[in-house]
Each structure stands twice: as C-alpha cells, then as structure tokens.
Amino acid sequence: MESGIRYVGRGCCWLVGLTNQTVKMTEKLDGKCESLKKDDIGVHLAKDFLFKPDLTACKNGGKILFATDDGFAVAENLLKETKPEWREGVYTDYGKWMDGWESRRKRVAGHDWCIIKLGIPGCIHGFDVDTSYFVGNYPPKMSIQAAVLPLEQEEKLPVRRSHIGNQAYLDEMVTVNSLHSELWEELVPMSELKPGTPETCHNYFNSLNVHDRFTHIRFNLYPDGGVARLHVYGTPKFDWTTVPASERVDLVALANGGECIGFSDAHFGNPKNLISPGRGTGMYDGWETARRLDRPSILEEDTNGHLLVTGKEWACFRLGHSGIVTAVEVDTHHFKCNFPDYCLLEGCYAPPGEEEKIMKMEGEPWKTLLSNQKLLPNKPHYFSGASIIQPHGTVNLIRLVMAPDGGISRLRVWGHIRSSNTDGNLGC
Fold first, then answer.
1. What residue stretches are annotated with the Allantoicase domain (predicted)?
2. Per-residue pLDDT averaged across 111-134, rounded?
3. Residue 118 in contact with residue 55, Cβ under 8 Å?
4. Which whole number is the average pLDDT over 87-91?
5. Residue range 196-202: average pLDDT?
6. Of 95, 144, 171, 309, whose CB count within 10 A is highest?
7. Residue 193 φ/ψ, nearest 5 degrees
8. How far apart, in whole angstroms, are the C-alpha atoms of residue 208 and residue 127?
C-alpha cells in the first residue's frame, strides 16, 4: 500500500450535525451519488445498510413469485438495478407507462401485495422503497414481512404470469392464501410513504430483525398504487456446513457471504459490484475509480513492463468463510480504455472488531497472495499455481490493489475453507 491513499470505510460517510437541509453523502452508494433529506431518513442516518448488497436485485437472482395485480405495470420492475425512468406521453393499452409496479385502482375488498424470493438469502438490515415518478398514484402506506419458505411450499405457488393488465385468478388466490403469508414476521410495520418527487422518493426503513436469515419477503401496498423500486439491503448468509474442506469454492462471492468493507475510491462504480454473480453487464456494474491526479506527467515502465506510479487504489473484502486461496480471477470485461495497468492481491487474518483498523494498515499483517500482474482490456485473467499464488496461512480478509487507477468488472477468489485462526496472530 502506498502512503497518501484515501480511505473510505463503512459507516463513516455521513456528515455530522443534522439540519433540515439536505444531508450530502461524501461517498457513493451503488456507484451513484445520492442525497438524503433529514425528514426522509431521520434516525436511520446512524445505520449503514445502504452499503450492503441488495438481496433482491435482478442481477443477484431476486424473483417475483406472485402479485395480486399488475394492472398498470408489472411487479418485476421493482427488482431492476437501473434508476427509474419517465417516458413522457407513452401509454399502454391499460394506461400511462410507468417504470415500477403499479396495481389498478382497487374496487374490491382487500389490498395489493406480492411475494419476492431473495436471490441471496440472508439477514435483512434495511429497505429503500423508491416511489420515483409515482406522485399522484403512490400507495399511502406499505409494510414488509419475511419468512424462510421451504422449497416444497414455494413450489405450491401458481406459475407467475407477468404482463400488464394481469390480475390474480380466484383459484390462484386460494392457493397462495394457503401459505398464510399474512402471518410472516413483520420487518417493517404499516408505514406511510412519500410521493415520488426527487426530494422525497426514497423512503428508508430499518428492519426490525437484523439477526435471522430469511429467504422470502411479502411486500404489502395499502390499499393499492405504484412503487418504482424496492431495494432490500442485507448480509448474505451461506450454509457452510454443506461444503467439505476438500471442495474448491469462491470464498469472496456475494452469494457465499463475501462483503466489501472498505475502499479508497469509487468515483464511477462501487467495488461491491466485483463479487456479484455472473459477468458484469456494463462498466456501471463494476468498480471504477477516478483518474489519479498524482500520475506522472510522462509515464515510464519498469523492466517488467509495469508503469512506474506512486499511487494505487484498493478495495477490501471480508471472505464468506476463512480459508486458503488457490486461484484468483480478475475480469476487466467492458473496461476497454480504462482498465488498470496491473493489480495485486493481499490477504490476512483479522480477529472480530479489528477489520476497520487493519484494512487501512500498510505492511504487516498483510501478506501478498498474488504479486503484481499486468492486466489487459476487456478480458478475464486467471491466476493459479504455486509459482503464482504465494504461500500463506488462513485468511479472512483480502485486499485488491490496482495501479494506478481504472476499472475492474469482477473478482473471484477460489480456495478451500479452513477453520479460523486460533493463535491470536493477526498475520497469515
């Protein structure tokens, strides 16, 4: 690590001293600048769930299993990663085109709701109910419930019919009601929503249960209306008891419980995207930093063809399970003119509560797992073998370093699980 690297960690992004003015963030969430009003988020400023992965996002495998009504717009829109959009003057056969889930104006008893399968089961910390562009048609109130739904019960649900104008048939309602999802645990009680103006569209709510693992949620609208996006932020929980020590797994994968806990810069894209499932869908779906201003005026290379630069950028990850690394994949997919010159990977073992301090440290306890490796544009790079991966002990933190700056799409850290370090040594 080079001196002078800028540090941005979890939970340190909020400006202190709340006023009624807009509270600006000094860090980017999901690679996009956001600003929050005090009235929108209140005491939730003390929380950092916005830095956690969206467990129901499409790219993470989230899925709508059932919706009572898709009169104006289908519930699948709730799970999009893209920002909601407005199309002026565009109408469907059922009414104004809207980028979200919008049910018809209810003219029968009850209220509208949908069941969503988390793409990645885990502990839920908070929600963003985004009502963007739903100004005269947003629900006055909503609530969120959750449960662990066994596969045999999920399979009882009717086949999802996703199209504008859809309304659940009577027999479908009878089948779904047999699950008694109205009795699922309440994570957000019935709460008021605000209209979808730029100042009020983000409705943030903490989860009442951040400790238990859930697989499904029920999103209730009272009584009807439209919501653009529903983001469910949490910590993935993977059942490692099913994985033998002999099996090679991606220790840092989001689906396996990996988590980005800090980074130096994320000007164009958040490094938490690196451990998402599948290949990146665009530059926005990776980690991209700003161009470093300390770059030499005229670049030079060393004897290995690496640029001679003083500055580097980094991202630190907590592994889903401690282990031994045997192979590393670094994919620069989509980064054709803005890929890093080279990268390296470091690892260490950090006891609970020491992560924030250790990830900013230079030298010990960090050990080099993968030395400087030249990168190419728009290409997956695979590094393995005893001559490439340096000998090391059990690690539970890894730090990806790029030089001098640029973008990376995905990171895979393959290895074998090992029990935690018990000798108290912070090193590998």
1. 61-236, 257-417
2. 97
3. yes
4. 97
5. 97
6. 144
7. -110, 160
8. 11
pLDDT of residue 399: 98
Cβ–Cβ under 8 Å, residues 402 and 286? no
Q: What is the largest CA-CA distance in the chain?
A: 76
- Counting Cβ atoms within 10 Å, is residue 354 exposed (0-12), middle (13-18) or buried (19+)? middle
**Average pLDDT over every residue of 115-122:** 96
CA distance 311 to 340: 12
Q: What is the pLDDT of residues 371-403, one digit of tens each?
A: 999 999 999 999 999 889 999 999 999 999 999
What's the predicted TM-score (pTM) here?
A: 0.80
Paired strand residues for 231: 128
Please tell me the distance from the alpha carbon of residue 379 to that of residue 408, in angstroms, as a whole number: 10
Q: Please, is 33 exposed, middle or buried when counting C-beta atoms within 10 Å of its C-beta (0-12, 13-18, 19+)?
A: exposed
Please tell me the predicted confidence (pLDDT) of residue 34. Answer: 38
Q: How many CA atoms lie within 13 A of 264 on its CB side?
A: 26
- Counted residue by residue, the chain has a size of 428
Calpha distance 66→220 (Å, rounded): 12
Rounded CA gap, 216 and 184, in Å?
10
CB 208 within 8 A of CB 188: yes
Which one is predicted more confidently, 422 or 79?
79
With b for 16 or more beta-carbon neighbours within 10 A and e for fewer, the 241-273 pattern comes to eebeeeeebbbbbbbbbbbbbbbbbbebbbbbb
Using CB atoms within 10 Å of the CB of residue 390, give its burial: 0 to 12 exposed, 13 to 18 middle, 19+ buried: middle
What are the b/e assignments for 210-231, b being 16+ CB within 10 Å?
Answer: eeebbbbbbbbbbbbbbbbbbb
